[in-house]
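Here is one chain, start to finish.
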Amino acid sequence: MDKISVEKTGKYRWTIVALLFFATTINYLDRQVIGLLKDNLSEEFDWSESDYSNIVMAFSATYAIGLLLFGNIIDRVGTKLGYTISVIIWSIAAMAHAWARTTGGFVLARTSLGLGEGGNFPAAVKAVAEWFPKKERAFATGIFNSGTNVAAMAGPPLIAWIYSSYGWQEAFLWTGALGFLWLILWWIYFDIPSKQKRIGKAEFDYIHSDAPDQALQQGARISWFRIIRYRQTWSFVLGKMMTDPVWWFYLFWIPSFFNTTYGLDLKSSAIHISTVYVVSSFGSILGGYLSGFFIKRGWPVYKARKVAMLIFAFCVVPVVFVQYISNVWGAVALISLGAAAHQAWSANIYTTASDMFPKRAVSTVIGVGGMGGSLGGILFPFFVGWILDYYGAIGSKTAGYNIIFIICGSAYLLAWVVMHFLTPAMKQIDLK
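Its structure:
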């Protein structure tokens, strides 16, 4: 379809992206409150680093289960209802943190939050596959995925203000309530293109312009057991497993890293943390744009995705040099680059699922792959807590952070090699 025709198709699909963006922002805002309040809650409840790691791992474990369950549920009941169920569960769980009075209470709230939040990305990526042709999917994914950065950017000053003005309980209550407001807009504006009366024929035809992909949409739902038989699934799973934990480390430990290394409390570090995620938001959008740009220049889809992901993998490497930076803003610059590169990588790796599988199986594949990322998120926090406690006991917690940053800087190149070995040409599967 030529440029002029595209301009005449209508733009309602970008309204869908806006909805996904705000849902993802709320999703990450709810999960990061405990990371921002970590030092304050640790003092009040006498948590060690290992105690906090256990709370993080409780979230990670049920998040993995939630991804797997919701991935299949959403493919069965549809994006609209599946997303709704997910948001209701995670919003109630987010608010429930306010009533926790013991470490066990926080573990229970985190497990419920993880279960509900597992539905966000399977639903959002499936919605993009339903509403966009392949050449626009990575860009659309990059936009809604930048909600993770906006949450991390707005979170520190917002949570610092709520905490200092009203207390930690209100921080959980107020952010948790946002999901219910979003649900109103979701039910008003979302439906699949074939049922959406707000779009015209031109936009509908453009959305479904991937003719080969369109031919694979009909058929029965795909089971987990069938999905895991394919190398394409394992490429996505291992890529997520090796890189998702890095983002979780940024989300849950960077505020504490600034405190430990540079003596910054929640209020004084808010500007530094927000800067990391301002830069990250540009990375997410750029990541989606770059592979789409390559495709529009005539590159094969697999080549465009892989070249873009290799570029971003190299951009993460400089984070290993944080250990040599004595100035906090120098550290912010390197961490910002690494976080932005992660988000650019993430926008593309999510899209590889819809490149390799038909739309009717996308949510299930995202769930299986997301579970792999969460399993890495379970093991890595355990390692982080152990190594920080070990080096903290000998008076050198900074040395523990140095080891962690070396791992973070090398993870993406290794993941790229593994994915390339498993799926050199990223061929789409014909699920008959």
